[in-house]
Design brief:
GO molecular function: ATP binding; dephospho-CoA kinase activity
CATH architecture: 3-Layer(aba) Sandwich
Helix content: 40-55%
Bound molecules: dephospho coenzyme A, adenosine-5'-triphosphate
Pfam family, one: CoaE
Number of domains: 1
InterPro entries: Depp_CoAkinase, P-loop_NTPase
Largest sheet: 5 strands, parallel
Family: Belongs to the CoaE family.
Number of helices: 9
Radius of gyration: 18 Å
Order of helices and strands: EHEHHEEHHEEHHHEH
Strand content: 5-15%
Keywords: ATP-binding, Coenzyme A biosynthesis, Cytoplasm, Kinase, Nucleotide-binding, Transferase
CATH superfamily: P-loop containing nucleotide triphosphate hydrolases
Strand order of the largest sheet: 2-5-1-6-7
Low-confidence stretches: 202-208
Shape: globular
Length: 208
């Protein structure tokens, strides 16, 4: 089974690319969706988050806006939150991979916003990075509710910059040129991976 890692900086189009992968029949594990489930009412992380960050849990669920305001302004607090969440997310990912192996899926994808930051590339055979010009990224992100330049700066300070993600990618998908362009590029990568025409061990592309 080939494991494709999908990542990219904020607003670069990970969710959109993940939806395209699913349309192409590739099962995708979404780390961010796993975090949402863990933080929802009854979620496995709610108790620990309530204990560590008291004012951020309301009516049994995490208030993500409030938690974001706390952790994106303080590196130590973000680390504390990650220490609660990342092992739980990893466990869900392992379950997903085990199920996919049992179903003999030839290709699956892991959508992980912090793939490089958490050394997730070591668990992937091929890494796809979604990327767009800075002005496109800013336009997408700054129109979101509750997003400010300060909040964005706090988030970006904790992520590998886009140019380094691009440099470490096996494939870069440009998302600033329209959906059709991205879909074509993703479809091409999926085809090559399914045909095993791209060597899946780091940077060596060996299309024959
Ligand atoms: C702090 C939380 C509640 C804020 O939620 P909110 O809905 O306001 O923002 P959202 O999740 O959409 O994140 C906004 C941007 O910040 C980035 N981001 C999220 N967590 C982190 C992190 N730990 N380090 C760096 N960037 C992060 C996201 O990739 C995204 O680009 C949430 O981001 C969270 O629980 N983060 C910790 C879990 C985590 O590490 N998730 C990312 C990988 S699975
Ligand atoms: N390939 C694409 N072509 C055109 N527009 C796109 C493309 N991908 C994403 N977009 C647009 O960019 C915005 C952000 O996309 P998306 O939500 O997929 O980003 P993301 O990387 O998942 O964001 P985050 O890092 O915050 O989770 C959306 O408005 C979406 O319509």
């Amino acid at each position: 089974m080939i494991v494709l890692g999908l990542t990219g900086s904020i607003g670069m189009g990970k969710s959109t690319a993940a939806a395209l992968l699913r349309r192409l029949g590739v099962p995708v594990h979404d780390a961010d969706a796993a975090v949402h489930r863990l933080q929802a009412r009854g979620g496995a992380a709610v108790k620990a988050i309530a204990a560590a960050f008291p004012d951020t849990v309301k009516e049994g669920r995490v208030d993500r806006q409030a938690l974001g305001r706390v952790v994106f302004a303080d590196q130590a607090k973000l680390k504390k939150l990650e220490a609660i969440l990342h092992p739980l997310v990893r466990r869900e990912e392992q379950k997903f991979l085990a199920q996919a192996r049992a179903r003999r899926c030839p290709l699956v994808a892991l959508d992980i916003p912090l793939l490089f930051e958490t050394h997730g590339e070591e668990r992937c055979d091929h890494v796809m990075v979604v990327s767009a010009p800075r002005r496109v990224q800013l336009a997408r992100v700054l129109r979101r509710r509750g997003m400010t330049r300060e909040r964005l700066a706090g988030i970006e300070a904790r992520q590998l910059p886009d140019r380094l993600k691009r440099a470490r990618a096996d494939t870069v998908i440009e998302t600033g040129l329209g959906r059709r362009h991205s879909l074509r590029a993703i479809r091409q990568t999926v085809r090559l991976l399914r045909q095993r025409r791209v060597v899946c061990c780091g940077k060596t592309a060996c299309e024959d």
